[in-house]
Design brief:
With about 140 residues, this protein is of the alpha/beta class. It contains three helices and seven strands. It is globular, with a radius of gyration of 17 Å.
């Protein structure tokens, strides 16, 4: 008998807080409270050495249902398509034009946060919109 494990999704990126705050907007996630002894995350960051500052950011589903997201700074940039990506499920159970309208509305909501629309995949029944986050990581609105 297997047990269900909690998991975290980790993103390698150049600017962890920028990418993390983008995903907070997309998913309705929130950053954790600052570490004990610090009134704000800014205070915490200022207590760290210059090379450690801004090296990571985390956020989680306020309901506790979704996985925690962790963003870590890496020196190399993105050079190829993601091997794994997130599908943001906003059209579950919908088909055709009704589904397409919901996906298009979500796409329009995300563009001001820095998302980039890449491609609409639509066969007249099922659809998704391929997008990129603020650092070019692919995701789909599904």
């Amino acid at each position: 008998m297997s047990s269900i494990k909690k998991f975290q999704v980790t993103f390698d990126c150049a600017e962890p807080e920028r990418v993390g705050r983008f995903w907070c907007e997309v998913l309705g996630y929130v950053p954790p409270t600052p570490p004990e002894g610090f009134a704000t995350w800014e205070d915490y960051e200022l207590s760290r050495s210059p090379e450690e500052r801004g090296s990571w950011f985390a956020c989680s589903d306020p309901t506790g249902e979704g996985p925690r997201l962790y963003f870590q700074r890496v020196p190399e940039g993105k050079v190829v398509k993601n091997r794994v990506h997130l599908d943001v499920r906003v059209g579950t159970g919908l088909v055709g034009e009704e589904r397409l309208a919901v996906l298009e509305a979500e796409c329009a909501r995300l563009l001001p946060f820095g998302a980039v629309r890449v491609e609409l995949l639509y066969d007249g029944h099922d659809s998704c919109i391929v997008m990129q986050d603020v650092e070019g990581n692919e995701f789909c609105i599904d």
